[in-house]
Design a protein that fits this description.
Length: about 525
Amino acid sequence: MNAESLTRTLEEFLGEASGAVVIEDGAVMFDLAQSKYSISGEHNKCLLHLWSPERNTVRRVLDAEVKSGTLRLAVQRLGQAHPTKLEICRERDRRSPTAKRAARVAYEPRLRRAIERHFAGFAISRLTTRVDLERSFGPIYARGLLRQGQTAFALLGVNASETQSSIDAALTFGILWLDVCRESSAGKFLVEGLVLFVPAGSSSLARERMANLNRAAAKWRLFEFDERHDSVIEMDCSDRGNIATRLVHATNETAALDRFDESITRIQTILQNCEVAVLSPAELAFRWRGLEFARARMGAEAITFRSRQEIVFGVGAEERVLEDRNWALFVQLLTALRNARHPYGPRHDRLFRMHPERWLESLVRADVSVIDERLETESVYSQVPAFSAADRAMIDVLTLTRDGRLAVVELKADEDIHLPLQGLDYWARVQWHHGRGEFLKFGYFGGRVLSEDSPLLFLVAPALHVHPSTDIILRYISPEIEWAFVGIDERWREGVRVVFRKRSIAHPDAGAQRLSAHREIARSA
């Protein structure tokens, strides 16, 4: 393969692999979800440059082959004569199907022994990893039932070799399994709650989520299981204040926009009305219908170390410094964005398909009151970097109601089984910072007087792309959390229109508070 074909192969593969990992000598060197890359095909050489806060690597690519979702490269390190191998894998879990199956089969008897010691007097039944697509269960989780007389607990466990995202998702599937067990045992015995087993040192997210579930609806118990030492530790899930989170100071947007006025003018001359997002006092992001294509930032000259502005561009993890020699390439990218990323654009085009949630977010942020008339349009923050324990580090939209109550808006453009609990993550963190007065202290909302009430939670998704399990999971959220599920028209790219709303309503039930959902059909439907 020549340099041109190699460059094209890399660009096509990496353009569709935003969450890929780069492996060299058997070790993960870069995670493209947090790293950047650039590809150069000049002077009859294909150079791949990868960098992150931890390392910086340049490899000359000699050959490339795509096989089973992996890009396998023969590369040459600078200064070395002999080529080596480098792999870029779309899937983070690189184990073979046989290895995955073996790990899951070995986990079941270990889990059974640990349960027998910790739950003396309970009998274990139905322990399985059988696939049940109708109820959304795959082979990752071991599911069973603990029973003692007329009392029982749903049981779910996940082994230590699974990915962190699978471990973080365990509570979602645990709730669904609890509901299945209750349905199948109705009239026979009482399934009191859920017992969840996760690997040692990995329970923080499940613990935070479990603290905000309805304790009148079920008993929730969480254990860390160390398979190596065969030990079990129960975690305390009663403390809502036990949240690993931090809030960054709000940036003076006016000063930042003035500082980068020249860069903004330069880019908007080509792509008018593109979105300009202030990331920090020293960095701006440029987006077109939610898709980031460039950044302007303050840097230092190599020799004098004087401060200067630079523009970098690229889509996804790709990044190049804008220079005279690649100006035409930059203009070409912006032209392609304008032609592809619009409501009636070509749906097969990569630029049209990328980051649909960011596209939806850009529309909601432009007029958040379309989600709920109580929301005001003046104080709206998006992608607030406040969260450190969740699998995703940004909240979609944070705003206020007209009477000063905080509101969290979590958006999904496609069907997602985890929407309710992800929204719960962000609600809990906003509530934590709100209770400590940090939003005003850190410069948010322009000194407005905020209501002391807990934040509202809005979950938003296209009406025909709502996962069937969503209603089940919402039933188990704490009645203290006021939520609304908003279904929007499938043609949201043409404009966000609400089709229906479901709201949480508290009803007294045997001395406890229980949540049910009230459904409203929007007038515009």
